[in-house]
Design a protein that fits this description.
The complex is a heterodimer of chains A (about 260) and B (about 350).
Chain A: E1 18-25, H1 38-46, H2 70-87, H3 91-94, E2 95-102, E3 106-110, H4 131-152, E4 160-165, H5 174-185, E5 190-196, H6 202-205, E6 215-217, H7 222-237, E7 256-257
Parallel strand pairs in A: 1-2, 1-4, 4-5, 5-6
Antiparallel strand pairs in A: 2-3, 6-7
Chain B: E1 21-32, E2 46-52, E3 56-64, H1 71-87, H2 91-96, H3 99-120, E4 130-138, E5 141-147, E6 151-155, E7 160-164, E8 188-193, E9 199-203, H4 205-211, E10 212-213, E11 218-219, H5 221-232, H6 235-252, E12 258-269, H7 270-275, H8 278-285, H9 291-307, H10 323-338
Antiparallel strand pairs in B: 1-12, 2-3, 3-4, 4-5, 5-8, 6-7, 6-9, 9-12, 10-11
Classes of the chains: A alpha/beta (about 260), B alpha+beta (about 350).
């Protein structure tokens, strides 16, 4: 007597999903003016990128040999992050990514879907920093994804929202702040906010991350940040029901500071 | 995926009316560490137990909380204690018992034991957090109860029913444990006619999601097949196939620990049993091969003679067993017949 089962005698990939949404600052400053004095940035953003700032105004932090624009570092870090998830046998079936660009246009550069079918979006630095609008778009996308999981009967982990900016919002954060406070109060979201460079306004960023203070990236250590993030995401995707994940806070020292 | 399956109608289970039909329960329970444990080396945090007899069967599952340091100890202790407490029930108890009361007694007793064990070991009770689910079937009744995100299925010859659905919060890593405050209110409890089902299958959430499609309520064909296996071949072979085929396939589909516990009832006529191999005869009749098996079969034949017109049978050859031995075998066989009342 042979007792056998076929592959389609089971339902496949019931892995709980972990939706992760990124709000990435793709404003003009990410293209190379991250080290300009604050007043230059303020002038540039207030003029909505209409004014090309003469090079002689950049009295501080002029590009030196080998200098790479932050957007390029961010692009590389994001690519590594995608690859790390893809190579993780558990996370690849669980983690789903959405990338919202926050620049001249607020747009979803990569929408949620299986990681093995995702493409790393090309980031282009241009325009102001409509952070409020971008966060709302990301929150909407997370809500829609959760609704889809519920329709499909898929379990999911508490969604993550990662916000990265090198400046400050050029629009109102009020609505995004209200929504996030409500979500955090009910423990319905995990948020990481990261300032890039000295001109990132962490005080303002703290409005949209009430549960934990925003961090400042040390230099342009995007790779280190994304390594930490992928390890944290993989940890959650491999967690069990009832498990409260304690993030590797000591690992933050490799890339961030308060 | 095929249409919702039904248990394969097995000729041995539908023999025309026969004077002696013997039934018995077979069980199995197995837990294996999930793929997410491979890289960490963490132990399997699930536990499962079973008891199977001629007229009573019990299956228990417990799923230790992944975040708790010693939850595998909690799960093992909870499963052991639950099995022991349930084994105290007789067929008559099961028939008459209030399922809410049974569950409450089990809950209080097992929870107390787990909390005491944790404190005695210098741990917090919450370190032993685990879910718990059980089914006890005896005579014509069953009681199924579940706390947490495990699943209990009743598999009938024509239908499958999710007797207790998983109890989950909004997010995947949220459920209720034995040690959670107020968890006594979270039990899902069912009881009813055991004859409606050929078997009961319990599984923790990892395996459960491969067997039940929540949005449509459909059941995976594997569920019916493994229950049907017990009618087709020896329980030993079925257990091997569950361990070597079912669980590895389920494990490919989830990263979580994988646990299945099941109890299934099989019924055969004496004529069919006489056609089995000696090993399967011994397994089915609950006795070792040799004199014991021969005496039990002879006793069964005598019982058949008692229920039939003796003139239709040739006289039985003289049997050397003592009256006391014959009565012991008869008692056991009557329990098998009672399981098939």
């Amino acid at each position: 007597m042979t007792l056998t089962l076929k592959q389609d005698d089971f339902f496949s990939n019931p892995s709980p999903r972990l939706p992760v949404a990124f709000v990435l600052d793709t404003s003009t400053s990410m293209g190379g003016r991250a080290d300009y004095p604050a007043w230059v940035l303020k002038l540039a953003t207030s003029l909505d990128g209409l004014l090309t700032i003469p090079a002689h105004l950049a009295q501080h932090g002029k590009p030196t040999a080998g200098w790479v624009p932050p957007i390029n570092e961010l692009q590389q870090g994001l690519g590594s992050f995608y690859n790390a998830l893809l190579e993780d046998e558990i996370a690849r079936w669980s983690v789903e990514l959405c990338v919202v660009g926050c620049g001249r246009q607020v747009e979803i550069l990569d929408d949620f879907g299986p990681i093995d079918q995702a493409t790393v979006p090309a980031l282009v630095a241009d325009g102001p920093t409509p952070l409020g609008e971008a966060i709302n778009v990301a929150l909407d996308a997370l809500e829609q994804r959760k609704a889809l999981y519920q329709q499909a009967g898929l379990d999911y982990y508490q969604p993550w929202l990662v916000i990265m900016t090198d400046g400050q919002a050029t629009d109102s954060l009020d609505r995004a702040e209200l929504r996030i406070r409500e979500l955090c109060k009910n423990k319905r979201i995990t948020i990481f906010a990261l300032g890039i460079g000295n001109d990132a306004n962490l005080k303002e960023l703290a409005r949209v991350t009430p549960a934990r203070p925003p961090l400042r990236l040390q230099g342009l250590r995007f790779q280190e940040f994304f390594q930490w993030l992928s390890a944290s995401v993989e940890q959650v995707s491999a967690s069990q029901p009832g498990e409260t994940i304690k993030l590797d806070l000591s690992g933050i020292a490799a890339w961030g500071e308060l | 995926m095929n249409e919702q399956p039904t248990l394969t109608e097995h000729p041995e289970n539908h023999e025309p009316s026969s004077p002696i039909r013997l039934g018995r329960w077979f069980g199995h329970a197995r837990s294996v560490a999930g793929r997410s444990h491979d890289r960490t080396g963490a132990p399997c945090q699930d536990a499962s137990r079973y008891f199977d007899g001629p007229d009573i069967a019990i299956a228990v599952i417990a799923d230790g909380a992944g975040s708790r340091q010693h939850s595998q100890l909690g799960a093992q202790l909870a499963a052991d204690c639950t099995l022991l407490w349930l084994q105290a029930l007789s067929v008559h108890d099961i028939a008459a018992a209030d399922e809410q009361l049974v569950t409450r007694v089990i809950y209080e007793a097992v929870r107390s034991q787990v909390v005491q064990a944790a404190l005695a070991a210098g741990h917090e009770p919450d370190d032993y957090a685990c879910t718990l689910g059980f089914v006890i079937a005896g005579g014509k009744r069953f009681i199924a109860a579940n706390l947490g995100d495990g699943l209990i299925f009743g598999v009938g010859r024509e239908t499958i029913e999710l007797l207790t659905p998983p109890d989950r919060g909004e997010f995947a890593n949220v459920t209720w444990f034995l040690t959670s405050p107020g968890s006594h209110t979270r039990w899902s409890i069912r009881s009813g006619d055991a004859d409606l089902y050929a078997g009961f299958v319990l599984c923790t959430d990892g395996v459960g999601d491969t067997l039940w499609h929540r949005p449509t309520g459909r059941f995976a064909p594997a569920l019916t097949q493994i229950v049907g296996w017990f009618s087709q071949t020896s329980a030993t072979e079925v257990r091997d196939s569950i361990n070597q085929t079912f669980l590895p396939m389920a494990r490919q589909r989830t990263t979580d620990d994988c646990t299945i516990a099941l109890i299934c009832r099989t019924v055969f006529t004496l004529e069919h049993i006489e056609g089995f191999s000696l090993a399967r005869q011994a397994e089915f009749l609950g006795i070792r091969k040799g004199n014991g098996l021969r005496n039990r079969l002879d006793t069964a034949r005598n019982l058949r003679r008692e229920t039939e017109n003796e003139s239709t049978h040739e006289p039985l050859p003289p049997n050397s067993m003592t009256e006391r031995t014959a009565e012991r075998h008869a008692d056991y066989l009557r329990r098998m017949m009672r399981a098939n009342d």
